[in-house]
Amino acid sequence: MNPKELTIERVQEVLREERYICDRSLATIVYLSLLMGKPVLLEGEAGVGKTEVAKVLAKVLGAKLIRLQCYEGLDANTALYEWNYPKQMLRIKLEEVEHGDKEAVETEIFSQEYLIKRPLLEAIQSDGANPPVLLIDEIDRADMEFEAFLLEVLSDFQITIPEIGTVAAKHRPYVFLTSNRTREIHDALKRRCLYHWIEYPSFEKEYEIITTKFPEVEATMARQICAFMQRVREMNFYKRPGVAETLDWASALIALNRKGLDDKTVVETMGCVFKYREDLHHLREQIEGRQLNLEALLRVSPELVS
Questions:
Q1: Per DSSP, which regions of the chain are E strands?
Q2: All domains in the chain, ordered by first residue
């Protein structure tokens, strides 16, 4: 699909066709990023669908998805490239055996043939028909030094390899950065990006997400799941569940052949929703103390969904 043929409405439509439900504000940011060639920084709580935007868009555009998973200690070399030292040493040894001349091969072993491309260099050197989609996932987990290094890459999309020279992108990749906001991203990086905060979904949107992802789900159970998730996100849990947990829970309930929820099923399957012992303990306390009234939640009215 040609990005130039898209509109904001069409972006919403094609994402929906790939079972990703987004509101108009997110569709607008995605559309503008394709039009302007600017990176997008997506922030929000874990599990609200930030990473999925890049994955689905790559599929829609027929583009290659290149993912850089960030972590503490990630450095430029790991993200860009490294030399294939075993292959270089083997080439030198073979040259010594065949010709006894090690110096003659020194220029050859520092060439593209011996270069191991990491995600950033792979995105820059991509020569496919379509620009790739570069996903820099959880940038907030990386160190400030790596974030500063990204400034140059995202500005010019070129890097200098001392042994080879400057390598510039033939096709500017579509770039998406995600952050769970475990720390603040520097203003200099934000200035280079379009920005969108992805909220937890409303009842209606979450219901649409569930029924789109799982058409076979019973409507009553889908409403009950949404009502429960909306309620627990208002409560004091260590980690509030996101859409990812909603979909995990729905998938598990379908696997158990449930048509609706009851107290027993909710308690037994809470490992799909909460991943901390403290949260599971707190949930049981809330149910036993009736602060979380499951009976009322499970009687959610069909009229809540038009």
A1: 40-44, 65-69, 81-83, 115-117, 133-137, 158-161, 165-168, 174-179, 194-198
A2: 3-81+113-198 (3.40.50.300), 203-304 (no CATH)
